[in-house]
Amino acid sequence: MSAAFDTIDRKQLLQLLTNLATEDEKRIMQFLLSNTTLNVKISGANTEEPFLTNIGNPQGDSLSPVLFIIYLEQALINVRSTFDSPSNTTEAHLPNEIAYADDIDFIGNQPVKVKIIEETLKVHKLKVNVDKTEHTSVRKHSEEWKTSKKVGSLLGSKKDIERKKHLSNIALNKMEQTWHRADKTKQRTRIKPYNTLVRSVLLYNCGTWALTKTDEEKLDSFHRKQLRRVLGI
Predict the structure, then answer these.
(1) Residue 230 to residue 233: CA distance in whole angstroms
(2) Phi/psi of residue 206, each to 5°?
(3) What residue ranges are annotated as transmembrane (predicted)?
């Protein structure tokens, strides 16, 4: 979606909080959402004077994402109500959508009706980013979908593993000077940055991988190879 936090209808948001928050909590949130200002900066122009705004969810604190999730969930409930009923057991077990913040994938056995989704979200002042909208068809004998990227990972497990290996090696090479000092640093000192900066890249979203025994063995071998380099073995 486009600038989702900045287009929220505060009146709708406060109405949603009626059954979710106590009176004191609602008053606090109403206070935090009132008298907010924006300041536009344009190079070479005098735009220092702030102006009041009554739309959007101010960002920068721990409350902001919680309010956004509440608001977005209500919008998604309305979107789900526009979907056709499942035609079979398999379809009934499919999730309607996969969401990470304002990055949402709608799933179905039939082409998703993007126009209906756009119109439903528009009621909540949310706008679909058409330029970033992708259509992916997952078929048994198709390879194209395996290179589609979702939240930093490719849909195809094997292709994603190879990509993560490549990215982790790049991260490993950036710390080449650290690994060359194996005789001057303790193992624990070298392992800690490896786990934090390299292994985390290698195993990012690994819980989504569908691995065979061979895949696991190859991944273990690659991991051990990196460790030998880190430890100077």
Answers:
(1) 8
(2) -65, -20
(3) none
